[in-house]
Amino acid sequence: MLQALGQLLPIALAIALSTVPIMATVLILMSPNRNRSSLPFLVGWVVGIGLMAGVFTLGAHVFAAPNPREPNNSALLGIVQIVIGLLLVALA
Question: Measured between alpha carbons, how far is 64 from 10 in angstroms, rounded to an integer?
């Protein structure tokens, strides 16, 4: 249990210190209708983080790590990883 928390702590810290929610919070607090917009932002943020954590957790279980003792098609796996990396860079 403590090992899992130790692995999740840096990710949680990065999410908490991300500039996007901090800027959005400052803008919401400075807006004239902050009472109406703060609760939907909070709900959307929590639901979005929870949904993405769930999706990536399920994805990690579906795509199990390859066994290094068994020969596999590592060239195809390498190409897929490069393509996914390039798509993520393009998305960023």
Answer: 23
pTM of the model: 0.55
- Determine contact, residues 28/41, Cβ cutoff 8 Å: yes
Query: Is it the case that residue 68 has pLDDT exceeding 70?
Result: no
Residue 21 CB-density burial (10 A; 0-12 exposed, 13-18 middle, 19+ buried): middle
Counting Cα atoms < 13 Å in the Cβ hemisphere of 74 gives 6
Asked if the model's pLDDT at residue 86 lies above 90, the reply is: yes
Examine residue 27 and state whether it is found in any structural domain, yes or no: yes
Establish if 85 belongs to a structural domain. Answer: no
Looking at the 3D structure of the chain, how many domains does it have? 1
Q: Is the CB of residue 54 less than 8 Å from the CB of residue 60? A: no
